[in-house]
Amino acid sequence: MVERAQTNAAKRAPARKTSGGSKAAGSARVLGASAGKKSTKGKGDKAQAKAPDAASAKPSDAQRKPKEAAEAKATKRSKGAGEPSAAKRKKATGSRGKLAGRRDELLGYFRKMYEIRRFEEESARGYAQGKIGGFLHLYIGQEAVGVGISAALEQEDYLFQSYRDHGVALARGMSANAAMAELYGKDTGCSRGLGGSMHFFDVANNFLGGYGIVGGQIPLAAGTAFKSKYTQDGRVTVCLFGDGATNIAGFHEALSLAGLWKLPVIFVCENNEYSMGTPMHRTSPVKDIADKGPGYGMEGVICEGHDVLQVKACMAEVVERARTGGGPTLVEMKTYRFRGHSISDPAKYRTDEEVKTRKAQDPLVVCRKHLAAAGVSDEELAAIEEEIEAVVQAAVAFAEDSEPAKVEVMENAVYAPLEA
Amino acid sequence: MAKLIGLPKLSPTMDEGTLVRWTKAEGDAVDIDDLLAEVETDKATMEFRSFDKGTLLKILADEGATLAPDAPVAIIGAKGDDIDALVAKAKGGSAPAPDSEKGTEKSNGASEGKAKSEPAAAKGGGEPAKDKQEATSDEDDSAEDSRVLASPLVRKLARERGLDLRSVDGSGPGGRVIKRDLDGQAEGASDGAAKQGESSSSSAGKASTSQGASATSSAGVDASGLALPRVEKASQMRKVIARRLTESKQQVPHFYLSVDIDAEPLVRFREQLNAEASKAGGKVSFNDLVVKAAAIALRRMPKVNASFAGDELHFHQRIDISVAVAVPDGLVTPVVRDADRLGTLDISKKIKELAEKARDKKLKPEEMQNGTFSVSNLGMYGIQNFQAVINPPEGGILAVGALRDEAVIKDGRVVPGKRMGLTLSCDHRIVDGALAAEWLSVLRGLLEAPLTMLL
Amino acid sequence: MAVQTYRDALRDAMYEEMERDERVFLMGEEVGHYQGAYKVSQGLLERFGERRVVDAPIAEGGFAGVGIGAAMVGLKPIIEFMTWNFSFVAFDQIVSNASKIFQMSGGAIPVPVVFRGPNGAARQVAAQHSHSVDGLYAHFPGLQVVIPSTPADAKGLLKTAIRDEPNPVIFLEGETLYGLKGEVGGADDLIPFGKARIGREGSDVTVIAWGRCYYEALSAAEAVAERGIECEVIDPRTLRPLDIDALVTSVEKTHRCVIVHEHLPYGGVGAEIVDQIQRFAFDALDAPIIRVGSRDLPMPYASNLESLVLPTVERVVEAIEAVTYAES
Question: Residue B362: which residues within 8 A CB-CB, separation 6 or more?
Fold first, then answer.
């Protein structure tokens, strides 16, 4: 296990417990890997992950037990009184040899990330054709986060997402058919055409919704975690939100309550650097969202969100802690969206150069590198891509052919019946 | 120019209608939106309102007849129009109505002015059936300038009972007819006596309940520093007075006749009477004598003891004299029943009793209802003559002035005399000038020769 | 039947339902160790412990969301707002989440959460603490809005809210009614939503009133009865669902209607009821319907002004007089 600074509700204790000799106090902040070249690697990251346990994992991307030791270069943040901040980054130590044993697992991740990518591209087409309406927030560029998180969760764990929810829903196991049909406003959609892009729901996969009000889902996640603690059901809740959401009250109140009650919940900030069109340095008083965790009695962790393996490893660890009564964690996923905030956002607030640079860190590209290291051939990947293409095209056809959303469903879905 | 009036299609699905009741008679003036008849359709009993102005010259369909839409039911035109051809046409029965008639009917839907000034243009035709349907389908808002203010409930009840709301006094805000105004109203508008009795009784009843009216007042200045009027809420009595007298002056064509009588005999008569009455502990006033004399005059000339009631004239069997009594916040008119049959002492006692009750706010509604004629006396204030406002539905009111000493010429010599001014206000709709003058002379005869009251 | 205060009736409703169902818990500010800001939760902590009687920090948006989230996955939370005035910082959770998740999920996720607390003006607590929120929350489909006026209704309706209702319930207690005593039902006497209660029968005017205003309506009815005007006083008890049938039936009998509520008049529940009655009973009306609500002003502090803003017996009497065309 990696060492990390522990924080808990007793923030008044100045001493920060560390283990493994990592001395985070006074360590330099670690910037995200967002600038293409890392400005720095954490000075405090002596705490290199020890050998990750090898590829004993099942290949399934969504059913995986979070047992693998982290190999991620996750950076831990914890902040005690008198300690401005501390960040640690753990370096990925993957090598060809090690990845070879995770071939099937990686293929599973690739398959899902590619499905999300193609699904989103087809969503954009559908929107341009006028077949999809309303708001449409694409997940392109952030696939590794959703897929890596899902890989670290059990089926029964709860997951919440903001309005940028297609990718995470698919990662969690929703069928492309149900997802595309929802965008098309069809009765066969995952929310029967009542939710649309921003409000995907999939109870069977415990995907508890996409939420349109920034930060509105965060207290709900504390609520499902409260239930898990109340009933001791062993489940963990993961709640995703963007960097913009960390300025709103719901974020702070939910983290405060979760920290106070040590709820089994992971708050995952997908920091794609822009809250709509405003870069983070103009919206946030701190450079790293993870720094906001210690104020609520929980550890803040930074993770490179473009690498599905790092995401998975980081999440596996904090999920395990939550599941075993260790309380909540705030995880900051450093990521980037390649498209605008929404389909109607031309994203003129950033340079082409910036986007181009970041695309070098495209999660699919990174994953392909891992796959190559694991000995997967391009032909194999091409075959998968073809398969996925069929899945996505079938989803479009399914959505096209499905019955429109039904008036009686709308009318009957305002109040649950008494016998619910 | 006279025209045939067809049965309107009063519901979209009406195939035939039964003419339940005519509310206008031949010879009656008809205005646009006047209720002509009630027609029972497949849906309900509907109002058949006129689209024409003129005189109902001929009714062609009897009450109870069931007819198809557009069947001729009446002729409306100007008095004296030759209607033989139209009657013959209507009797032709199965013959389809000529275009010209339909064209004329079409003009029914046009504005009144247009229909009158451009009768020929209306003949241009068009789509009469369609127009007719449109014109008749919006019965609720067809009233326009003569719209009756009535609550939804009242409109529904009026439809059910076949009442013409235009003849009902509305006691609600702005004259709105409210349910109370219909309470006890007989079925059908023709029962005018009951209607009028009830409507006045309801008003009077209201006045009586209002006797406990409490005024709220506030004093102050407005923003510019000017003194504001002291604002009091109008009592119900004040509202009733205002409404009824306004209606009276606006709706009742008043005319006034004055006489100055020689009151010398009356003074002497009263002295004699009171010499006897005092033994019984009573005292008769001049006003009591005037009431008695007026009652006798009404008995002798019953045409003046009457009310105008729309299509009917009501000649009252009893002589019930309303006596105006001033009370602190207004005026009430308790009724001396059968005044013609009461002795003057009884009249005196009755008026005293009623006046006392009025001032104590203890008058019962029935003590203020259903007078047939009024007497109002301001003589005690030295008023010589005044013209009183009729208390509807009564046909007249006698205004009594002060008894005054005056030099009179008798037998060619100036001598001291007693005079009294009387002014009669009449509802010209039922009492004409000559009749009123005759009645006044009868009254004068009675007062100037009081013993003849015994005849 | 036992006689209890409104406060104790609410407490017993929660107590009995928590005994009955392990999934029910109470969360809010000062509900546990403090025994409730208004002592409605007195004794619950001792009986059920901190697991089920949860003191929350001052974070209405947060713990309202916790309640909603917990309800989404099978618990039956009772979320207490110290007063409903503070629910405004949780407005987004109640409106954007609680009222909509069932619909947004295509009918997949019910949200059986009860939000409760005192509603309406107390005494001289001024603009920010005097809101009557019934009109506000009744606006939203997806919410059930309950506003009991008697101890019996308080108990029976709260039990229904907790036990049977799979939807979010806005349960509005009368801040000035907690000490009111009356007979209450037993442990299994539930009162269904959407059933109005006729508090006084009469033939001349229907007076519709709820919450605290129910008592203003009854007093006004007493006052005008002396003059022969008989009021039928009806308490709808739940504003969503609304027992419009009962209201219309009464108006069809009396032909006149006065609506009394404490919340602000603009676009309020009274206006909604006026609309429905004029649509369903147009031909029955003998007078325009009159609403008596708070005046359209933020609540002032000064006592004399406050009493001018709140609906009073006198204003109800005036309205009754107006619709009966009577005079005072």
Answer: none
Does residue B277 lie in a domain region? yes
CB A147 within 8 A of CB A394: no
Name the token pair of B372. 């047939």
Residue A324 buriedness (CB in 10 A; 0-12 / 13-18 / 19+) = exposed
| Rg of the Cα atoms in chain C | 19
pLDDT value of position B45: 74
Cβ separation C165–A418 shorter than 8 A: yes
Residue from C129, C139, C314, C318 carrying the catalytic annotation: C129
Q: Which residues contact C269 (CB under 8 A, 6 or more apart)?
A: C134, C135, C138, C239, C261, C263
What six digits make up the tokens of B426? 């009449």
Residue range(s) defining the domain that contains residue C9:
2-184
Query: pTM for this structure?
Result: 0.61
3-class DSSP assignment, residue B303: helix
Is residue A207 helix, strand or coil? Answer: strand
- Spatial neighbors of A208 by CB under 8 A, at least 6 apart, are A158, A159, A160, A201, A220, A224, C69, C72, C73, C109
CA angle B325, B327, B329 (to 5 degrees): 135
The most distant pair of C-alpha atoms in chain B lies apart, rounded to whole Å, by 86
First to last CA, chain B: 56
The pLDDT of residue A407 is 92
Q: Is the pLDDT of residue A69 over 60?
A: no
C204 residue type, one letter? D
Distance (Å, rounded) from C-alpha C271 to C-alpha C277?
A: 10
Region A99-110: mean pLDDT is 92
Contacts with C70 from chain A: Cβ below 8 Å? 223-224, 226-227, 230
A68-404, which class in CATH?
Answer: alpha beta
pLDDT tens-place string over residues B81-108: 888 888 888 887 543 434 444 333 433 4
Mean pLDDT by 10 residues, chain B (455 residues): 82 76 90 82 74 87 86 89 86 48 39 37 39 40 60 88 84 86 62 37 37 38 60 78 88 94 92 86 89 94 92 91 87 91 91 88 82 93 92 93 88 88 95 94 94 86
- Chain C 212-231, CB below 8 Å of chain B: which residues? 227
Say whether C287 and B154 touch across the interface (CB within 8 A).
no
Query: What mean pLDDT do residues C294-322 have?
Result: 93
User: Mean pLDDT over all residues of chain B?
Assistant: 78
What CATH number corresponds to the domain at position C285?
3.40.50.920
Separation of CA B18 from chain center: 31
In a domain, B229, yes or no: no
- Both B139 and B275 in one domain: the answer is no
Mean pLDDT over residues A159-186, rounded?
97
Spatial separation of the C-alpha atoms in residues B314 and B340, rounded to whole Å: 19
Choose among B152, B153, B172: nearest Cβ to C325. Answer: B172
Active site (annotated) includes residue C222: no
Dump pLDDT digits (tens) for B289-330.
999 999 999 999 999 999 998 888 999 999 999 998 888 778
Domain that holds residue B303: 252-454
Task: State which of B251, B286, B308 marks the end of a domain.
Answer: B251
Listed residue (A330, A316, A301, A334) closest to A74, CA to CA: A301
Reference C328, options B217, B173, B218, B210; nearest CA is B210
Q: Is C16 a catalytic residue?
A: no
Best CA proximity match to B118, nearest among B103, B102, B97, B133: B103
Under a CB-based contact definition with an 8 Å cutoff, are residues B395 and B430 in contact? yes
CB contacts, 8 Å: B154 with chain C? 286
Residues 6+ apart with CB under 8 A from C109: A201, A203, A208, A209, C72, C101, C102
Encoding tokens for residue C147? 């506003």
Cβ distance of C110 and A420 shorter than 8 Å: yes
